[in-house]
Amino acid sequence: MTDPTERNRLEDEESPYLRQHADNPVNWQPWDEQALEAARERDVPIFLSIGYSACHWCHVMEDESFEDEAVAEVLNQNFVPIKVDREERPDVDSIYMTVCQLVTGRGGWPLSAWLTPEGKPFFVGTYFPKEGQQGQPGFLDLCERISDSWESEDDREEMEHRAQQWTDAAKDRLEETPDSAGVDAGGAAEPPSSDVLETAADATLRSADRQFGGFGSGGPKFPQPSRLRVLARAYDRTGREEYREVFVEALDAMAAGGLYDHVGGGFHRYCVDRDWTVPHFEKMLYDNAEIPRAFLSGYQLTGEDRYAEIVADTLTFVDRELTHDEGGFFSTLDAQSESPETGEREEGAFYVWTPDEVHDVLEDETDAALFCARYDITESGNFEGRNQPNRVARVSELAGQFDLAEHEILKRLESARQRLFEAREERPRPNRDEKVLAGWNGLMISTYAEAALALGEDDYADTAVDALEFVRDRLWDEDEQRLSRRYKDGNVKVDGYLEDYAFLARGALDCYQATGEVDHLEFALELARVIEVEFWDADQGTLYFTPESGESLVTRPQELGDQSTPSATGVAVEALLALDEFADEDFEEIAATVLETHADTLEANALEHATLCLAADRLKAGALEVTIAAEELPEAWRDAFASRYFPDRLFARRPPTEAGLEAWLETLGLEDAPPIWAGREARDGEPTLYVCRDRTCSPPTHVVEEALEWLGDSGENTEGESDAPF
Partners of 270 in the beta sheet? Predict the structure, then answer.
């Protein structure tokens, strides 16, 4: 059999990140059985390099080392070099990133790991320069030393011993569950109480930067949307004003600073500094799903239109730059693009400005001066001599400075922004990673569906449904009832992970809530049933990240904590709790058992498990059930329940008649109507509303104000003063 490691095999892959390395002299292999078998047959270590297409330092390491012939010779002769796209294979990334964090105390990408032929890690790190510098070993020298040690019998024995220790540590961290899970000799374990939500919120307060907004005492600054959800929910539960204050401060800081693209909309990945000035310029689909969802909560909680505007502008960006022509959403935009001055690919080149460039585009001196004053465009610059726009001046301040009315200021600024946007469109664009990931699409679908309800925009619901149908058509196997993770140019790859099923199930449920179309609810239930079959382990009382029928790795990870995306386990528990209302299966029992299993973990470290804490609160509090028996959702009802902050709201739409409901039950494969629908037909031929909270229900009504009064809600948003420079 031909040795697959005799050539670079990445040209056969569809991942844009892998294809970026297809021309390297390194004989890169994808993570597959051929490569792993070659390592075993050659009895050489695996060099594993994990990254993603928009990763800046991944590009740097490629330029310095992987395009170098001398480095390639060492890797090809002494290792099986494997390249992994972390966005396609989060399971592989999770295992070796966990080892890196355990061993070095930090992580990040590129992730560099040296493994035994069995896949057990014995040396890990992130970026390595080709030549050693500032106490950091050089990559070439490191590879040579590892190869020499592997050939030494004594050294190899020590390396294999270390590999086993590290693998055991990863298994203990990722796979094992507490011995006290479920029912033991001491009696029945309990899920954490709703107090864990306040525990998480209090920890979030302690991490808050009250001077610059957001979380952490320095840079980099990440958006942390799960922590924002915790603050908003805790404020709703307790009325504690400090929760609301920190929530609003974080939203305003992100909206005003460089994290947000003030010219074209959308959010960058994070900011490198404490005051949100300079972003890391890549744009990720998941950020532009989860951050706007937090801003929707801000709009619902405060009634401030500025938060709705941020959502609308971000979704316009997603429509324009991250949406497939047939529906579905692409993954990322690169941080780098070609600089018009140097012709080299540089980080942020597409987004930054000088005062001269602004003046050249706008021509009118007043317009240019206004824009520069509003967005801190200066000669000295805030990023390598140029400027990432930051909104630093209020309209009221500019009105006094320029002796213009505020409405005139706003009109001129919007005109200037539009002209600068059009000029920017002529620049060389960042590369786009056009793979469509099921899970990330689920996040974006949820945001569009919720925006349709909260903002009353039917077009958003249409976009959500188009994306759901795109993913369902291309990645869901109806016969096998299984989901694949990635679609790219007709090619489908990788069995779906828990995040794919959970995020997409929530997205399908949200499409049902937004449209009242039962097919979306049917799909959500199908996905939930696979979660039970493939990811639920009743003996361990937990949900695993990888499917039972999937590839066997050195350990089977769980994903309990929030990372750049919300916890897959947390979203799965939330989705199962919501879908339990419509299912014959006991999804709530699964959700409750998972929370029982991990109760100690949540209580000990609530901050890192925000989504699971939200799920625990949802289990204890129950949903705000809003059953609507009507052909269409009345606008006043939508406005009352969706444009205001009801974080546990569940729209249980149903046909107005029992005959119509029978057809739905047939579609869903249900013999009897679930309690949330049963006996709740439209009364007197009019749309009828049934509202239940804390497992207690209001009388049926045609008047939404009566339902709000029963809930003890005034129907008003909680408005407050903000010091944001909007």
Answer: 280
The tens digit of pLDDT for each residue in 150-207 reads 999 899 999 999 999 999 999 999 998 986 444 443 344 688 887 999 999 999 999 9
Task: List beta partners, residue 113.
Answer: 48, 124
Q: What is the mean pLDDT of residues 486-508?
A: 97
140 DSSP assignment: H
* pTM of the model as a whole: 0.94
Alpha carbon 190 to its chain's center: 29
Closest CA to 626 of 648, 643, 644: 648
Q: How far is CA 99 from CA 69, 155, 348, in A?
A: 30, 21, 32
Written as one string, the DSSP assignment of 653-672 is EE-SSHHHHHHHHHHHT-SS
Beta-carbon contacts of 341 under 8 Å, excluding residues fewer than 6 positions away, are none
Distance between CA atoms of 18 and 85, rounded to whole angstroms?
A: 7
Element (H, E) at 313: helix 305-321
> What is the average pLDDT across 111-135?
93
Q: What is the DSSP string of 498-520?
A: HHHHHHHHHHHHHHHHHH--HHH
CA distance 466 to 632: 20
In the 3-class helix/strand/coil scheme, how is 190-246 assigned residue by residue? CCCCCHHHHHHHHHHHHHECCCCCCECCCCCECCCHHHHHHHHHHHHHHCCHHHHHH
Beta-ladder partners of 345: 338
Give pLDDT tens digits for 392-405. 999 999 999 999 99
Degrees to nearest 5, angle at CA 134 with 128 and 136: 35
**Which residues are bridge partners to 484 per DSSP?**
495
Q: What is the DSSP string of 525-556?
A: HHHHHHIIIIIEETTTTEE-SS-TTS---SS-
What order do you get walking across the sheet with 688-693 strand by strand?
Answer: 649-654, 624-629, 688-693, 696-697
Q: For helices 438-455 and 305-321, give the axis angle rounded to 10 degrees.
A: 140
Rounded CA separation 139/129 (Å):
6
Phi/psi for 491 (5° steps) reads -95, 130
Please report which residue ranges of 605-697 form alpha helices under DSSP H.
610-621, 635-642, 658-668
Instruction: Name residues whose C-beta falls within 8 Å of residue 689's C-beta, 6 or more positions apart in sequence.
Output: 626, 627, 628, 629, 637, 700, 701, 702, 704, 707
Cα separation of 8 and 239, whole Å?
A: 59
Residue 2 has a pLDDT of 76
DSSP code, position 383: B
Whole-angstrom Cα distance, residue 250 to residue 213?
A: 5
Model confidence over 455-487: pLDDT tens digits?
999 999 999 999 999 999 999 999 999 999 999
Q: Report the chain's C-alpha Rg in angstroms.
A: 27
166 CB burial (10 A radius; 0-12, 13-18, 19+): buried
